[in-house]
């Protein structure tokens, strides 16, 4: 358990994978660090049916590396290297994968253990969260419980899905600044379910940004602005 | 009719007032131009019970002057120099003032005439609209009808008030890029009425930004960002 030997490059930064054992679960993770050493860290929560190193995750990671952030991601319940139901080839198995992977139950412990590991290995850092859709299903419980996370980019999620009740229950416990993204024509998570979850967030500083389009069609300017947002708040 | 003789300074820029006659109405206006000549113009729509030179309007005007914009504003129906019911001392007379001043009926003609005048006197310019609350009650009809306006900052308004039906009817005719501000705890224009009006805007590029707080408590960062938004889009 710990770092894997193989090291790769991402846009001039280092990419190292690790694996931890948390309770009875394997927790496979990846850590990217920029060319210039940084004290700022962002945790990336991937979307449903994808994984910690999906193409769009690499794209976001590169944007943070350019800002001088280090970036950490782990595979969510039943996803990526923890996929045991063939999710990657059968995206309709999302709920099955999520639930059989432990759902929200193990999420806080998994991410906290991964953050402990990185903090011990690298340096203590002010930390932000970036995660949409399932990245918010993971991020909201983590941000609500782990006070090391100082700001969060959440969204594309609502009072919806297998752990809807838990999300709604935990939302008031989120107190750090949050930017919350909504796709106005979301065909996966209904708009009103998203607005409802934003409403319930406990943060005094919370901002909702909504744009026309389907679930996965966030405008690029909003993605760029979301990285800038964490850049301003993780200090 | 035309420019008034008296000229003042605003943050180093020039402030000149004018008065036009449109149909049977007096249209009193103000025009601020920056130190350095600019080809970009923004129209400022003031809020209910205020007027074209209210303190917060001067504040917004200064922000645009600093970006090199020229700025124009006129008094809305029954407001400012067109106040005939004592609105400035009796803010509860808002609807009475609005309706007796002609309501939405004369708004497009008034603003178009003022824009004609400025274009003729100064220069043809790419033009944006900035107006919240009653500034949107005026701005939405103007933007829907006057194709010279290329981008708009709207908000704090919804399917609400004396001309609610007209706003809803005109919203689909707005097709330029729009940023729309919502105050999540708006005690004047209910949140859902605002979300409904945003929904009906015809623009493909529209973004909603919502923040906690009452009607008049827009966070300063959002005001600054609204000026930056027009700065990027009026080109």
Describe the structure.
The structure is a homodimer of 235-residue chains. Chain A is of the alpha/beta class and 235 residues long. Chain A is globular and about 45 Å long. Chain A has helices spanning 55-66, 94-100, 107-121, 134-145, 164-170, 191-200, 220-233, and strands at 2-10, 13-22, 25-33, 41-45, 70-74, 127-131, 149-155, 178-183, 206-211. Chain A starts with a strand and ends with a helix. Chain A has seven helices and nine strands. The mean pLDDT of chain A is 95. In chain A, helix 3 (107-121) packs across helix 4 (134-145). In chain A, strand 8 (178-183), helix 6 and strand 9 form a beta-alpha-beta unit. Chain A has a single domain (2-233), classed as Alpha/Beta hydrolase fold, catalytic domain (Rossmann fold, 3-Layer(aba) Sandwich), CATH 3.40.50.1820.
Q: Biggest β-sheet of chain A, characterized?
A: 9 strands, mixed
Overall form of chain A:
globular
The helix fraction of chain A, in percent, is 25-40%
CATH topology of chain A: Rossmann fold
Radius of gyration of chain A: 16 Å
User: Which class do the helix and strand fractions of chain A yield?
Assistant: alpha/beta
What is the count of distinct domains of chain A? 1
Strand order of the largest sheet of chain A: 1-2-3-5-4-6-7-8-9
Largest interface by Cβ-Cβ < 8 Å: A-B, 14 and 14 residues
**Number of E-state strands of chain A:** 9
Distance, first to last CA of chain A: 31 Å
Architecture of chain A, according to CATH?
A: 3-Layer(aba) Sandwich
Q: How many DSSP H or I helices of chain A?
A: 7
Low-confidence stretches of chain A: none
Order of helices and strands of chain A: EEEEHEHHEHEHEHEH
Quote the average pLDDT of chain A.
Answer: 95
């Amino acid at each position: 358990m710990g770092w894997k030997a193989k090291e790769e490059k991402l846009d001039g930064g280092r990419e190292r994978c690790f694996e931890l054992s948390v309770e009875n679960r394997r927790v496979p993770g990846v850590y990217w660090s920029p060319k210039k050493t940084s004290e700022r860290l962002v945790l990336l929560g991937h979307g449903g049916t994808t994984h910690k190193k999906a193409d769009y995750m690499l794209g976001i990671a590169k944007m943070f590396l350019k800002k001088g952030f280090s970036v950490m991601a782990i595979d969510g319940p039943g996803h990526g290297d923890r996929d045991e139901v063939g999710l990657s080839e059968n995206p309709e198995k999302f709920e099955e994968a999520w639930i059989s992977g432990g759902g929200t139950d193990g999420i806080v412990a998994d991410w906290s253990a991964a953050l402990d590991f990185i903090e011990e290995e690298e340096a203590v850092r002010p930390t932000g969260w970036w995660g949409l859709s399932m990245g918010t299903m993971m991020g909201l419980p983590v941000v609500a419980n782990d006070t090391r996370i100082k700001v969060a980019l959440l969204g594309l999620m609502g009072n919806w899905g297998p752990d809807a009740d838990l999300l709604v229950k935990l939302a008031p416990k989120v107190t750090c600044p949050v930017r919350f993204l909504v796709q106005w024509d979301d065909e996966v998570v209904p708009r009103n379910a998203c607005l409802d979850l934003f409403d319930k967030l406990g943060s005094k500083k919370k901002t909702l940004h909504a744009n026309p389009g389907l679930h996965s069609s966030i405008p690029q300017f909003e993605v760029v602005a979301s990285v800038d947002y964490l850049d301003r708040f993780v200090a």
